[in-house]
Design a protein that fits this description.
- The structure is a single chain.
- With 194 residues, the protein is an all-alpha fold.
- The chain has one domain (2-193).
- It has 8 helices and no strands.
- The protein has helices at 2-13, 18-35, 38-61, 66-83, 88-117, 124-136, 142-162, 176-193.
- Helix 3 (38-61) runs antiparallel to helix 4 and helix 4 (66-83) packs parallel to helix 6.
- It is globular.
- The chain starts with a helix and ends with a helix.
């Protein structure tokens, strides 16, 4: 019975906060609808909803649900095909190739860190989310996405340190909470510029 209660509590934690999802999602939907052509606006709103949910959940639980990461991966592949109606199959294939490459790159970083430090530095949820990054972004924008995410995480750690919080090498940081908004932001900026 105790185990059932713990499972129910964990399942509840893996749901996004409705107020955060509706508030931030509504703002992003309005921004996207007013500034992007409709096909890109629909893609932006879809990605934003998934990324807001992922960031909210990861910030609270240090977990990125498969419904978010795999949903974003699938949505990215479908969006690639939808946004390139003249060549949907090659666009989807390219998105899949980028997704696999990005996930493998982050898995390699995870493996190397584990060898060097003898502890886990990235979770598998981050690797699945990296696949979504690859599916949504052009190859040239993928490093920018990770740079935005790591820079914002670094600023957060520096601010925590300045506030007097104890920071050490084993401190846990929900990287998905930074990578999710970075993915939407880089996608949106690219859609706005393109």
């Amino acid at each position: 019975m105790i185990e059932a209660r713990a499972t129910t509590a964990l399942e509840h934690d893996l749901r996004p906060n409705p107020a955060v999802l509706c508030g931030a999602g509504g703002a992003v939907a309005l921004i996207s609808a007013l500034s992007l052509p409709w096909p890109l606006a629909i893609a932006s709103i879809t990605l934003a909803a998934l990324m807001i949910a992922g960031a909210d959940i990861d910030a609270r639980t240090y977990l990125i649900p498969d419904t978010v990461s795999c949903g974003a991966l699938l949505a990215g592949i479908l969006a690639a095909a939808f946004l390139d109606p003249s060549a949907p199959w090659p666009a989807a294939g390219t998105a899949i190739a980028r997704a696999v490459g990005t996930a493998l790159a982050l898995a390699t970083v995870r493996w190397c860190y584990g060898l060097l430090k003898k502890r886990e530095g990235l979770g598998f949820g981050d690797i699945k989310l990296a696949a979504a990054v690859g599916a949504w972004l052009p190859l040239a924008d993928i490093p920018l996405c990770f740079a935005v995410a790591t820079s914002s995480a670094l600023v957060t750690v520096i601010l925590a340190r300045l506030r007097g919080q104890g920071i050490d090498a084993t401190m846990k940081l929900p990287f998905g909470a930074f990578l999710c908004p970075a993915l939407w932001l880089v996608f949106y900026a690219g859609a706005l510029a393109g």
